[in-house]
Write a structure and sequence with these properties.
2 helices, mainly alpha, 33% helix, 72 residues
């Protein structure tokens, strides 16, 4: 969950982030769209780093087997 932009103490206005739905868009489309939006809300440090770590933790063990064998 990300706090609300206008009233961070109001949990009813919070944003929910779902890492299970990831979208990939062309970079040119994103830069053009961002240029047309104008000023917008952004995460700043250290919240941006915390968000990035949460995303990485969600996917970091996807490729590992269910049981890791002991080192011999």
């Amino acid at each position: 969950m990300l706090g609300a932009t206008e009233h961070p103490d109001n949990n009813r206005e919070a944003f929910v982030v779902d890492f299970r739905e990831i979208y990939s868009l062309p970079l040119k489309y994103l830069t053009d769209h961002a240029a047309n939006l104008g000023p917008r809300w952004r995460l700043q440090s250290p919240y941006l780093e915390h968000f990035s770590q949460a995303f990485a933790r969600f996917f970091m063990r996807v490729g590992l087997p269910s049981r890791i064998l002991p080192f011999k």
